[in-house]
Amino acid sequence: MHYTGTIWRPPYEAYSALVQVTAGCTHHKCKFCTLYEDVPFKFRMSPLSEVEEDLKEISRYHRNAKRVFFTGANPFVLSFDKLKTLAELVKKYYPKVQSIGCFARITDITPKTTEQLRELRQLGYNSITIGAEAGDEESLSFMHKGFGTKEIIAESKRLDEVGMDYNFFYLAGIYGSGRGEIGAKNTAKVFNQVHPKIIVSSMLTIYPTSELHQEIQNGNWTEETEIEKLYELKTLIENLNIETYFATMGASNCINVEGHLLKDKAKMTKWLDEVIASVDEKELRRYRENLRHL
Ligand code: SF4
């Protein structure tokens, strides 16, 4: 198999066949991000011959996979024609495949027409994972996400229109100290207008090689305390009113909270209240500082 650098996938893609069709990220500018630092170039699409070799190999020992997940930070950036060719290759080696997933940036959806999105859905692309991070204009702009709240809403609605499911990655702590509550309320207002199936929450963990670390050193930004991040999560959950599954996933979370938002909201916020009342900032901080790798 051809894999370049660390392979990142959402936790719920654990049973998918992981196939590298791109490596790296076309954007590569988010201030907090250190994810693709070990890739020796910014972005690359794998040659089709390489993808085909990998599909041939993985389909031998991962024969019954019902889902293929394309790796790389944003394979959905590829043109409609390339995505179509890749889906046809998947079908050749996995005739029974039910769907294809990948990470996508909001800006990867923009250049595709609604008809193309509809066809991609029919070709199997579904439940793509979008690193929306937040719905707070100030934070998205400061962090150089490369898109704003209007784009999140507009492009998600186009996915809704063609019936392509999507999940959001949310980044607790993105607002900075003192802005957690207002940021979470802004995010809820944006996320409430669209229909992510799952909202996966991670917690901001700042590594020295990130641009954000430099911003902190320069006095331009202050990190939320760990307890502020927990209050932020509580505010977000309280203010979200869409049918979605909300879950902290991955090592960056010092606590876990998850549930069906509408049904379990009261349970989730009560649990967060209990945690907030009993945790010690220093202990949580120690946990964060010992996270060598996400
Ligand atoms: S957060 Fe995602 S989009 Fe931003 S630089 Fe990292 S991989 Fe690229």
Architecture overview:
The chain is of the alpha/beta class and 294 residues long. It has 2 domains: 1-126, Transcription Regulator spoIIAA, CATH 3.30.750; 134-294. It is built from 11 helices and 10 strands. It has helices at residues 48-61, 80-93, 106-109, 114-122, 137-142, 149-162, 180-191, 211-217, 226-239, 261-278, 281-289, and strands spanning 17-20, 22-24, 43-45, 67-71, 99-104, 128-133, 166-172, 198-203, 245-248, 258-260. The strands form 2 sheets. Strands 1-4-5-6-7-8-9-10 form an 8-stranded mixed sheet. Helix 7 links the parallel strand 7 and strand 8. Helix 1 runs parallel beside helix 2 (80-93) and helix 4 (114-122) packs across helix 6. The radius of gyration is 19 Å and the shape is globular. Residues 25, 27-30, 33, 35-36, 73, 105, 131 line the site of iron/sulfur cluster. Its cofactor is [4Fe-4S] cluster. GO terms for molecular function: catalytic activity; iron-sulfur cluster binding; metal ion binding. This is Radical SAM protein.
How is the main sheet built? 8 strands, mixed
* Helix and strand composition category: alpha/beta
| Percent helix | 40-55%
The tally of strands reads: 10
Bound molecules: iron/sulfur cluster
The domain count comes to: 2
Order of helices and strands: EEEHEHEHHEHHEHEHHEEHH
Strand order of the largest sheet: 1-4-5-6-7-8-9-10
Question: What is the terminal separation in angstroms?
Answer: 23 Å
Give the mean pLDDT.
96
Strand content: 15-25%
List the uncertain runs. none
Shape: globular
Rg, Å, rounded: 19 Å
Provide a count of the helices: 11
GO molecular function: catalytic activity; iron-sulfur cluster binding; metal ion binding
Pfam families: Radical_SAM
Domain Radical SAM core: 11-243
Cofactor: [4Fe-4S] cluster
